[in-house]
């Protein structure tokens, strides 16, 4: 860092500013976390200089001995942690992982059945503004209006009617466990492949805090930077029979040189995720999310589906008459970072939205507990209801005290 400050004081200032922001505010974005200093060290290493197109033992460049070791460690750890038959650790992101799987399993224009974006699905699950909706025929399932849970009857009816080549489950804004066995049965009934997009909850699977999709899915994709607490990146797990197709769909089909610094950082995170301390963290993430959802319910914010089984909660703000957009802005002024989010059957436009989404991975990494979640719920409830700068200032001061008692990246 001293070298950076000397060479480029402007960027050094940005990094210090971002560190202060991450330390000084409450980080409640469901897909964010604080990667360990060891993960960050691997990311900022000389492996960033290395070209290593190909796979260990069969590269298109010389000098790959250390790159091979890093990738073999990452793959071996992913296989051991998730009990999968094959792993590809090269995808640059969750989106890149999904693109590779579609490329491996589908021809252009073939049908995918996945969760609709407004009900919690991801852009890569068939949205028209994404390759997945442009290059494939996307059919969407959703949740029931009554209990806001996935409508498995609808999934089955749509599968029988449209005969998709691929069914996708796992989402960005669905706080409940997904019934992978039910999806498997439906996929088998119509002869479809099943992909589970575990981008959000792979870190809970790794820590045994939720059921694993690996025994049910043909392919599982994940991000490594959310609950899993690694570097920004993607990961694909699959059965052996798909290994070659998946590897070729990542490289050379959709990517060039792997980011070996990120691959090494994934190896570090996967090692960390195998420890008892990590398993305790993963369970606490869920307990904290449940405590936070309950606390917010007491503040008049309605948890969609009535609560959560995971690291995230989706809150319907219509009961307090505040839009998601206003809530996000007020929280930001109060030092609470979160995002507005559409709720199922949302009457508001996506840029306004009737809800917010919160997640507990980062605050749990900081060491916060269920007692802290109760305090966060009070502060958040106060912030979203108020547009008064004095009140938001008071909340910001209380947030500052709370995070100071559980510092992210504590000074040694
Ligand atoms: N899949 C799901 C379900 C996600 O929630 C996300 C990201 O939020 C992704 C895929 C894409 O991950 P990335 O942002 O790394 O491309």
Proportion of helical residues: 40-55%
Describe the sheet with the most strands: 7 strands, mixed
Q: What count of helical segments does DSSP give?
A: 16
Radius of gyration: 21 Å
- Content of β-strand: 5-15%
Average pLDDT:
97
Task: List the ions, cofactors and other small molecules found in this model.
Answer: pyridoxal-5'-phosphate
How many DSSP-defined strands?
15
What structural class do the secondary elements suggest?
Answer: alpha/beta
Distance between the termini: 16 Å
Strand order of the largest sheet: 4-10-9-8-7-5-6
Q: What low-confidence regions span 5 or more consecutive residues with pLDDT below 50?
A: none
| Coarse shape | globular
Question: What this model shows, in words?
Answer:
By secondary structure, the protein is α/β, with parallel strands linked by helices. The chain has helices at 2-7, 9-24, 37-43, 65-82, 94-105, 131-134, 152-162, 180-190, 202-206, 243-254, 260-272, 276-298, 324-333, 361-365, 370-385, 389-405; strands at 26-27, 54-55, 58-59, 86-88, 111-115, 137-141, 166-169, 193-197, 219-223, 234-238, 302-303, 312-316, 336-337, 339-341, 355-359. It has a seven-stranded mixed beta sheet, with helices on both faces. Strands 11-12-15-14 form a four-stranded antiparallel beta sheet. A two-stranded parallel ribbon has the order 1-13. α4 packs parallel to α11. The longest helix is centred in the last third of the chain and has 23 residues, at 276-298. The protein is globular. The model has no long low-confidence stretch (mean pLDDT 97). The record marks 225 as: Plays an important role in substrate specificity.
